[in-house]
Amino acid sequence: MDTKTDVKERLAPCGLHCGKCFAFYEGEIHNTAILLQKYLGNFAPYAKRFAVQLDPVFEQYPAFAALLNYLANASCGGCRVEKCKFYKNCKLRACSLERQVDFCYECPDFPCEHTGLDDDLYKRHVAINQKIAEIGPKAYYDEIKDTPRY
Ligand code: SF4
Ligand code: SF4
């Protein structure tokens, strides 16, 4: 991932990393879920056996498989492509498009009071944008790309 465009695809205008979201269609969680499904193969009948012979935890395999399947079918294109599924009140996407800025820190009104974000997310958004302003989107991306989102 070398170009500003690629970094922008993954970092939303608020600065959060859509690529690390479990709902992102090309994210690491999504890709890893597909890989795990592939290597587990037809594990279900074995899980039943292991539940008896090894550990009752394997009784929970159907629930685990259902969640894994959910993660493997993630379909969000990220905030640059579509409205966020979680932060439904967020106004940053539409506003940054209207103001033609990639990130809020580029806006003369930053930090503003009409983001629609809750307090916690608002603080994170301001801190992240200040950091991106200081070191640039690519350096920020490289700094956080391998840390967990959650
Ligand atoms: S837009 Fe929202 S739901 Fe989609 S990847 Fe980004 S944070 Fe996740
Ligand atoms: S007005 Fe606020 S939400 Fe809109 S781009 Fe500027 S800082 Fe971001």
β-sheet strand percentage:
under 5%
* Arithmetic mean of pLDDT: 94
Structural class of the secondary structure composition?
A: mainly alpha
* Number of strand segments: 0
What summary fits the major beta sheet?
none
What is the molecular shape?
A: elongated
Description:
With 150 residues, this protein is an all-alpha fold. It is built from seven helices and no strands. Helix 2 (28-40) packs across helix 4 (61-72) and helix 6 (119-135) crosses helix 7 (137-144). It is elongated, with a radius of gyration of 19 Å. The protein starts with a helix and ends in a 6-residue tail after the last helix. 21% of the residues are buried. The model has no long low-confidence stretch (mean pLDDT 94). One iron/sulfur cluster (SF4) is lined by residues 12, 18, 21, 23-24, 76, 78-79, 84-86.
Ordered list of secondary-structure elements with their pairings:
Layout (H helix, E strand, L loop, with lengths): L3 H7 L17 H13 L3 H10 L7 H12 L19 H8 L19 H17 L1 H8 L6
The structure holds iron/sulfur cluster (2 copies).
Concise overview:
This protein is mostly helical and about 150 residues long. The chain has helices spanning about 5-10, 30-40, 45-55, 60-70, 90-100, 120-135, 135-145. Helix 2 packs across helix 4 (about 60-70) and helix 6 crosses helix 7.
